Amino acid sequence: MPSLLVLPYRRLLRVPSEETIFSALRTAGIRIPSDCGGQGRCGRCKVRFLEAAPSPTSADSRFLSEEELSAGWRLSCQHRVEHDFTLEVPTLGEVAQVKVRSGEQPIGSLRPQAVQRTVAIPPPSRGDRRADLERLCAALGEEVEVPLSVLAKLPEVLRTGDFQITVTRVGRKVVEVEPGAQAKGPYGLALDIGTTTLAAYLLDLGKGEELLAKALANPQAAFGADVLSRIGYVQEHGQKGLAALKGRLLEAIGQLVESLVGPLGLSPEEIVQAAVVGNPTMMHLFAGVDPSPIGQAPFTPVWKRGMTFQARELGLRMNPEGIVHVLPLVSGYVGADTVAAVLACGLHHAEGLALLLDLGTNGEIVLGGRERMVACSAAAGPAFEGGRIACGMPGVEGAIFRVELNGGVRYQVLGGGEPQGLCGTGLVDAVAVLLSIGLIDPCGRLLSGDGTPFAAHIEGKGNARRFRIEEGKRPIYITQRDIRELQLAKGAIRAGVEVLLSRMGATPEEIDRVYLAGAFGSQMRPESLVQLGLLPEELLPRIVPVGNAAGTGAKLALLDCEALPEAERIAQEMEYVELSYEKPFAKQFVAQMRFPESRKEVRS
Amino acid sequence: MPSLLVLPYRRLLRVPSEETIFSALRTAGIRIPSDCGGQGRCGRCKVRFLEAAPSPTSADSRFLSEEELSAGWRLSCQHRVEHDFTLEVPTLGEVAQVKVRSGEQPIGSLRPQAVQRTVAIPPPSRGDRRADLERLCAALGEEVEVPLSVLAKLPEVLRTGDFQITVTRVGRKVVEVEPGAQAKGPYGLALDIGTTTLAAYLLDLGKGEELLAKALANPQAAFGADVLSRIGYVQEHGQKGLAALKGRLLEAIGQLVESLVGPLGLSPEEIVQAAVVGNPTMMHLFAGVDPSPIGQAPFTPVWKRGMTFQARELGLRMNPEGIVHVLPLVSGYVGADTVAAVLACGLHHAEGLALLLDLGTNGEIVLGGRERMVACSAAAGPAFEGGRIACGMPGVEGAIFRVELNGGVRYQVLGGGEPQGLCGTGLVDAVAVLLSIGLIDPCGRLLSGDGTPFAAHIEGKGNARRFRIEEGKRPIYITQRDIRELQLAKGAIRAGVEVLLSRMGATPEEIDRVYLAGAFGSQMRPESLVQLGLLPEELLPRIVPVGNAAGTGAKLALLDCEALPEAERIAQEMEYVELSYEKPFAKQFVAQMRFPESRKEVRS
Ligand code: FES
Ligand code: FES
To answer: Which of A19, A93, A473, B83 is the most exposed place for a label (fewest CB within 10 A)?
Structure first.
């Protein structure tokens, strides 16, 4: 029976393939809005496919915009569960009353820390001479903290609004007061700060809805492509370098925030709470804290615990009294993004053994479940991101992102136009295809292909040999060197998995589920990863791409006040394994650079 | 037996007149430093007389500077307790171990919230990969809050100081980290923001010592002499007016702070905690909060509770991460200064009935004791501060501040030079003298003096009549109008006392002690106040001037972490009586404008 991972609730549903998603969700107690009962006539039941969205039906096209369709939104009553996949349900507000369980924990209630409330307050009179603040606290029924900037507004706001006032709080802190009945938010910002890409999500925390999501390249790339080169930049340029890196980042985030609130007619000041995730170095640079200790043995960060800052302290473009949570770090190389991804996919509640992989220049790997979790970070090099590859490029328009064998080498290009190069997933697919047809041997050698239908694709000799994917105006190749780069990446990740398995005393077969997370990782074809030997073959049916699970975790931190303490527990419980201190790692690394023997194409 | 009020411990000692102050303090368990055992040879036993300091002995002159002597400092082993008076003991640090009791409460331990500690921290190693922050918390043995600016310094400070670090905290908040062993503070600032005068005290919170005190005129005087005219200015000029008033005040406080730290070679950033007192309007203007609601019935402030702000929010010249406490208010006209004065003189612990008077344009009056306290504010007009008086002037150099009958009318001038005018205490003394010799009748009429030795001093008729105190280059008079102004002031205060007494169901005789507090009030000759009828004659021996008790209360708030919650209880327990709503007040006011019948000079 195919299974369906429903985010952000982290519920895994096994669903008969004849059932519609709409009915499966309803059966499972996840309330999906609908006025037509699943007949495709109301357009309210939309969900988002985080991978391989099915072709839109005519009902989809009628009710959903072009943008929504291309973002993976479909009407849930129009599609069936034909294979495993992950989807996201849009509104938490609608399901706030439902106790959703993931593992043993009740999860998924809408319990935001940020709340907005309109209260009517008796005005002062001869018989009631309490101060404005005492009057407000009494009306709210509890003690609140009022920062000076809000206190300074209070007398005028109370009197303008005729002693009716809308109060926005984050926890006990009052971050905004407005005259009259203004409640329409509050709004929250989830931020995933990647080394390469920034992703931002605007949430209506009152309704539990994601309103808009935007991404932007991390402008720090100008100072170095990876974490180590950015740390190096700070070490070389000191406080000025640090300020430059922080400044560029905050400027870009400011642009993202404007692009989120602008279309909705909101102002950045209406965002009162933010949750931020990313790797430890990005978190340090975001906060303006020198990440140098991460760059030197023993690779410790300046802080690990989840931190709570004032937006004002950070200079973040939002309400200056707003609260910003940076989720906890595990070590210098396993960060808030990994903790958030674990939170989102519920690995820490798993009964059996689960594996979380976030592939990138640094691959974060978590193995475990409710009893115990171990984690490491493996330096995979830039191959998964298309870096240091002859025809490599990032996963943007013009990149070949899929390569298949279908009566010849076929490929797909992002955006559909002329191919400009190969992105990481394209490279992985291409090498997997060449392995499957025996053109690459287990040592990673690109063979001549003599006597095969592909001989014409091969040029050159030895280290200069290459396989042509496309001729045409801009020929695109895979070179022997590219294969070596990918071997390094694959070897590092697989060796990391093996080290964690042996730390756990477990074998690969005991892994019940593999979550592929992150911008790159969740886009990889599971079949190709297995063909490469990045994961053992028997895990293929257990692989679940979970999209940007780190971003989902950040959203959860805003939507559910229990999520932050939960993230803290995850970070504390997770055992970090520093691979550079592990003797078996080096041996595994070398061994795992080999590709698997099997030359048959692996099928799911 | 004369009694001795010892501040800041608020202990009242009854001392045989043959005993030296030094031995009386020691007997009472108040530890006074000494190396010579009271023989006048070590110079360490100094105390400060808050009123009428005795003439310096030769030992005083040997060990104490001119400045100290003129500020009232004397060696306690050199003086005896010949009549009631108040003195201040300089160092709390020296007596930190002594349980001093005032009423039933243990008071006067040095228990500051701000503490400085040097800790050695194990550096990170392969076997200990905790983050810097976690490492610090473990070394401190408790969880602390670290603001971003301090977190950003942490990695460098730790490494510069070879993992020895000095941490300054206010409560749980770390406000400063410095490399190595730096402990020499921490420093605190007590601020008394008067409508007319700003007083600032710099304290070493580690030792419990007052290092320096400075005063400055409140520059807001340019916007109006009294509270109501400043509120009027804000109402007229809106946010800009408010910003101007706040700006001028903070600028002056900044100058005060510089003048406190400069001579000691400190920087303002070394001040990490401040306690601020003043009347409600001054507290609103200090915080930049519109005080308008105080200006209109029902005269409520924007807040009452004690507030805690970040120095950064206020823009106060000190460590920007420092903590600023504004003591609680009781109403729109009874403020943090009154609460602090009660705290300092211990009225809220009094077994019997005590009366606290702070005379000024608004006279604050508190009556009560440990069971119950009632308070009011009486609009006395500017007479007590020398305002709206023909030859009136503030109590600065050149002001006649004492007038006596001693074979003729004699006076004393502040600073000793030519008299320029009369300050409030001079006016009170002068009227008291004229009453005592029958030149003013109980209705307040200035008589012709015909047939008396003073006839030559009198000029004019009716409302234009005046009494010449000094001819010479700049003749100085008291006019019939001046007497009327003083009658208004006296009438308002005495009527306020009577209203509070009747609210308490008590008679004047039941008052055990009268504390005269404040810059003006504590300078008044008790005999003159009684002669005027501002206080009933039977209270004369029970009057104790307590100096700037509000400032002392602010210091206590920094020195003893229990003082702030105590102030909160005082403010909550104090019943506020709004005199404008009290019918009996108007009647009393008119009746109390009369002076007492007795024409004999009242002697203590
Ligand atoms: S439920 Fe109405 S369109 Fe799907
Ligand atoms: S005790 Fe030594 S001088 Fe007074």
So the answer is: A473
The chain A residue lying nearest B130, using CA atoms, is A300
Domain coordinates of chain B in residue numbers?
Answer: 3-90, 114-179, 187-326, 351-551+569-604
Pick among 1.10.10.10, 3.30.420.40, 3.40.109.10, 3.40.190.10: CATH of A352-380+497-592:
3.30.420.40
- Which of A148, A154, A309 comes nearest B314 by C-beta? A148
Dig out the tokens for B523 from the structure. 């300078």
For ligand 1, the distance from its centroid to the CA atom of residue A76, given in whole angstroms, is 7
Residue A556 Cα, ligand 1 centroid: separation in angstroms? 26
Longest dimension (CA), chain B: 102
Q: Which atom of ligand 2 is nearest to the CA of B41?
A: 3
Contacts of B155 (CB under 8 A, 6+ apart): A289, A290, A292, A293, A302, B132
CATH number for the domain running over B187-326:
3.30.420.480
| Fold type of domain A3-90 | Ubiquitin-like (UB roll) (3.10.20)
Q: How far is residue B498's CA from residue B484's CA, in Å, rounded to a whole number?
A: 20
Return the HEC string of B181-199. Answer: CCCCCCEEEEEEECCCEEE
Q: Residue A599 and residue A209: Cα distance in Å, rounded?
A: 47
Ligand 2 geometric centre to CA of A269 (Å): 63
Class of the domain covering A114-179? alpha beta
Contact A508, A538 (CB under 8 A): yes
Q: Kindly report the number of other CB atoms within 10 A of residue B581's CB atom.
A: 13
Whether residue B186 has a cis bond before it, omega within 30° of 0: yes
- Report the interhelical angle of B563-573 vs B549-559 (nearest 10°): 130
pLDDT, mean over chain A: 88
CB-based contacts of B285, cutoff 8 Å, min separation 6: B220, B230, B234, B242, B245, B246, B249, B291
Q: What is the ipTM of this complex?
A: 0.80
Tokens at residue A540, please? 């293929």
Cβ neighbors of B374 (< 8 A, separation 6 or more) are: B366, B367, B368, B500, B503, B504, B574, B575, B576, B577
Ligand nearest to the CA of B45: 2
Q: Per-residue pLDDT tens for A469-485? A: 988 788 999 999 999 99
Lowest mean pLDDT among A29-43, A160-174, B378-392: A29-43
Choice from B30, B41, B57, B68 to test ligand 2 binding pocket (greatest atom count within 8 A of CB): B41
Query: Contact, A273 vs B103, CB < 8 A?
Result: no
| pLDDT (tens digit per residue) in B474-491 | 899 999 999 999 999 999
Kindly give, in sequence order, each residue whose CB lies less than 8 Å from that of residue A120, ignoring residues fewer than 6 positions away. Answer: A139, A163, A164
Point out the residue among B128, B133, B289 whose CB comes nearest to the CB of A152.
Answer: B289
Q: What whole-number distance in Å separates Cα of residue B539 and Cα of residue B501?
A: 14
E-state strands within A283-388: 307-310, 323-326, 353-358, 362-368, 373-379
Phi and psi of A395, rounded to 5°? -75, 65
Mutate which: A285, A300, A581, vs B, most B CBs within 10 A: A300
Pocket of ligand 1 (CB under 6 A): A 22, 34, 36, 38, 40-45, 75, 77
Nearest Cα residue to A582 out of A502, A528, A527, A514: A502
Confidence label for A93 from pLDDT (cuts 50, 70 and 90)? very low
| Confidence band of A432 (pLDDT split at 50, 70, 90) | very high
Q: Using a CB-CB distance cutoff of 8 angstroms, which residues of chain A are in contact with residue B288?
A: 148, 152
Could you tell me which chain B residue has the CA closest to the CA of A326? B148
